[in-house]
Amino acid sequence: MPRVDADLKLDFKDVLVRPKRSSLKSRAEVDLKRTFTFRNSKQTYTGIPIIVANMDTVGTFEMAVVMAKHAMFTAIHKHYSLEEWKLFAANHPECLEAGNVVTGEMVEELIISGADIIKVGIGPGSVCTTRIKTGVGYPQLSAVIECADSAHGLKGHIISDGGCNCPGDVAKAFGAGADFVMIGGMFAGHDQSAGDIIERNGKKVKLFYGMSSDTAMKKHAGGVAEYRASEGKTVEVPYKGDVEHTILDILGGLRSTCTYVGAAKLKELSKRTTFIRVTQQYNEVFS
Ligand code: 5GP
């Protein structure tokens, strides 16, 4: 008989972070870099653990160059040619990979099988339609809390993948225990994002689409195979110029969250996070 799990499961929008006593005097005192030694490969990583998603619209070489300046990295999409890769990977030797799950037992299974970092998220993405097409998913905040607990118990690490729509969501993902946060939509529409600027009713926009949308599948696989449904959508996002502004906005927000809860380092954020369940995140009267 199918089982109904009646435990409360939450999304980023369902909570706020409770401010705590803080001795930090300035956001500049906050250290956002983290150092991890991975359980299985024993490789070491140091940087600000925000990753641009491996989508062909945002996971570009151009994006990687700017992100690297800020000690962050880009999961580069897989559709560059070998020649394009050779040209780029002389100067920029970095990358990371794993697979998407949302439950503690799958996280444990993957870590025990040799994975270092597990990507967490089914259906939260801004251009994802998995929940509509399949009915499958898991509210992202709860997925991160539960999967981080399982991973950390085995000295593994997780990436919260998808569903961050504003800097506050990125802070909530770290507060929930994510070691890394992967972002697609927030990095769409910039100079460093792929695609041309299009004029639409006097406004500049850029195309952004899911990697299993019709658009992506037509571009890379000649169409959607008969046995599957497209699980992504295509949208036009306002053109936002240089990605540098968005990066600084995210990092500034994250530093501010850390000062509100008294975390001098990003590493301390989840230990100092108490989420409050809310019915309204912010005042929408002028939005
Ligand atoms: P965002 O930051 O835009 O909310 O989410 C980015 C994440 O959405 C990606 O890292 C990836 O996991 C997921 N994603 C990207 N394209 C698709 C798609 O076409 N379908 C689904 N289900 N997920 C997608």
Textual characterization of the structure:
The chain has 287 residues and is an alpha/beta fold. It has a domain at 30-194 and 244-275: TIM Barrel (Alpha-Beta Barrel). The chain contains eight helices and 13 strands. It is globular and about 55 Å long. It starts with 14 loop residues before the first strand and ends in a 10-residue tail after the last strand.
Provide a brief overview of the structure.
The chain contains 8 helices and 13 strands. The protein is α/β, with parallel strands linked by helices and 287 residues long.
Which tags fit this structure?
binds guanosine-5'-monophosphate; single chain; TIM Barrel; 3-stranded antiparallel beta sheet; 6-stranded parallel beta sheet; 287 residues; alpha/beta
Major β-sheet profile: 6 strands, parallel
The CATH superfamily name of the domain at 30-194 and 244-275 is: Aldolase class I
Pick out the low-confidence regions. none
Backbone shape: globular
Secondary structure tally: strands:
13
- Please give the CATH architecture of the domain at 30-194 and 244-275: Alpha-Beta Barrel
Which percent range describes the beta-strand content? 15-25%
Tally of contiguous helical segments? 8
Task: Report the radius of gyration as a whole number of Å.
Answer: 19 Å
Order of strands across the biggest sheet?
5-4-9-8-7-6
Q: What are the distinct ligands in this entry?
A: guanosine-5'-monophosphate
Structural class, please? alpha/beta
CATH class designation of the domain at 30-194 and 244-275: Alpha Beta
Order of helices and strands: EEEEHEHEHEHHEHEEEHEHE
CATH topology of the domain at 30-194 and 244-275: TIM Barrel
Estimated helix fraction: 25-40%
